[in-house]
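Q: Fold this one first, please.
A: Sequence and structure below.
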Amino acid sequence: MTAKRRATRYHKATIVRVAIVVFAVVMAVIPLPRAFVEEVYSQGAYPIVRRLVTGISSLTDLVLFDLLLIGGLIAPPAWWIFRLSRAPRGGRLRVLASLAGRTMAVTATLYLVFLATWGLNYRRVSLAAGLGYAESRITQPVLESLTVAAIEHLNRLYDSTQDQTWPQLADLPVRLGTPFERVQRWLGVSPATPGLVPRRSVLTPYFRRAGVDGMVDPFFLQILVNETVLPFERPFVTAHEWAHVAGFAHEAEANFVAWLTCLEGDDMMRYSAWSFLVPRLLAALPDAAQRRLSAALGPGPRADFAAVRARLSRTIPIVRRNARRLNDRYLRANRVASGVASYGEVLQLAVGTDLGRRQWRAPLPGQ
């Protein structure tokens, strides 16, 4: 190959890399209309991408995100060291600039793949808008009434499940798959995503120390769940991650879909749903109301909540704080203005929408 031809190819490759970086920057900052994203991506392209990606990733027992993570941590530094060590004397600056440009292009490409395979769901129309959310419905009398009803459900379900064995993570697609598909039909998500088997990741030790219950691999759409979550937490955590795969990227929406899914299951699944929501209902009330209503909790649910606190107490505070800070920045970068506070916004959907209120089967003040 002549020097001129090599220079031409290098010039073309540079143009391509610059174009990729520019396109990624544009996609990161451009305010795409949510209605456009909903119709073209979330309801149009994403179900096709989801079927293709989950179909491929389900063919292997490997956790593909682990391979991507390990490769991302090892390959770039190794490649930089190799190239710089072989650079001619006086040419290291040019090699360094080339490596920086290539690394930026690869990073930009990964970001664009993230958007295409899942990340654009952060910019879809909010679930609250589609379900007729009304903030005026969320008042203290309503929250107190619903908290009483939720605690009654929790106490009854605890008693009815004492002679049963909680399912393992691998059993949950059978126990929750049909309820999950039913909820997706309610929400207009079609075609329904079948329940995916949770995987154990090399990140599990980090999850344990950071207090992370689970995550969705946004590139291969595999479900990663912290194995140390308690048996009664497993159904809700798994359904939450399934909801992400279904296209509900916002944490409050994933929590809402998980709550609906578990309520459509058997008594054990419903116990998981209410054991998630009751602490959040109590936390939304003034201290005096919290103390008064907490007294109605049965000894079984009290022991379960204490077990959750004990599990979280075994995290490493600095790791947990940094994980929370990193997650907050990630969510804000993806158009979730409230950051990690969005996890608690599930009450807006559970209390402030018709679909949420229908799950309580309890009279509300003013109705």
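Q: Good. Now the second chain.
A: Here it is, same layout.
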Amino acid sequence: MTSTPPPEPAVAIERVAVLGTGLIGTSVAMAAARAGCRVTGWDLDPDVAADAAARSRLDPRPLLEDAVVDADLVVVATPIQAVAATVVASLRAAPGAIVTDAASVKEHIVRDVQALIGDDLPALSRYVPGHPMGGSERSGPEHASASVVDGIVWVVAPHDRTDERRAQALDTWIERLGARPVRLAPRRHDRLVAIVSHLPQVASTSLMGLAATEEADEPEILLLAAGGFRDLTRLAASQPALWSDILIANRDQVASAIELFAQRLLALRGQILAGDAGAVEGVFDGAKRARLGLATKPTVRSGVAVWQVEIPDEPGALARITAVLGQGHVNIEDLQIVHSPEGGRGTVHLTVGAASAASCAEVLAGGGYDPIRLA
């Protein structure tokens, strides 16, 4: 009689090395340290690594090999053009470690890693591509925070040679940090982020560029820019070199997304020119309903309510309104604030669960505010 071999023990992650200590790398290091991991770090720029170490609990190392030598997990958060080479260097320098990355493009990097690693399939099996869907238009360790990963979707995108036990270990570690692991194939990841991440950057940058060009003949144009324009062009403040590399790396999927977006814009243009108010309203209504359903928490998938409240543009104003809602036991699902270009006041958009809509209005009115329901 043959006995069934015992299951392999789970892969434990307690020692983490972060390579590339910019905004994402340092934020991951902070979250890992908060979760009780021992964290080492390395950056091509020693001054950046030192800055990251001063702001977090990572132990900076002068060489990549020193940072990963006894790591259970290596997180590669370098600029995108250096990711594949850094992944391969890590796989070779840390023969027992899981290696993941934080790049926003997956298929291109997986292909490059496979080409560089050659026939070393055991090493390739330890590479689990990833993408934490956090960050902002800012960059550098000075803007890092453990809260950057709180509640975010963190894509885990195994390739065809990834060891499933290691992918599961990465899932578990991501949950430990307070994020939500989501499995996607590399190609599918790239197609989806082209629409929801890369295209918004293109649209924001293009709109800002259009306004800046028109300003040459109409110097008042930017004086008229209200909240909507400011919201839509926020991403235009992102780092140019970073986004150039990302868009080129995902060029085919980004080009397809731009084409789909252009088709929708031209269709809407035709409806506007034709004076077809019903069709235009239908486009807006469909988009509005989809936007209201865009909630990260399953608990608010049943619906949300959006309240608009004017507040003074002064220190403590936002803290006061959130304190009023907190005291009234109203949970805020999302919050946006838009400053008036004239100054002196701002508008807060508060999103709450649909079931809390009435109580939110009552609490706000009781606190001296005059809320207007938008949705």
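Q: Anything worth noting on the second one?
A: The chain is about 45% helix and 15% strand.
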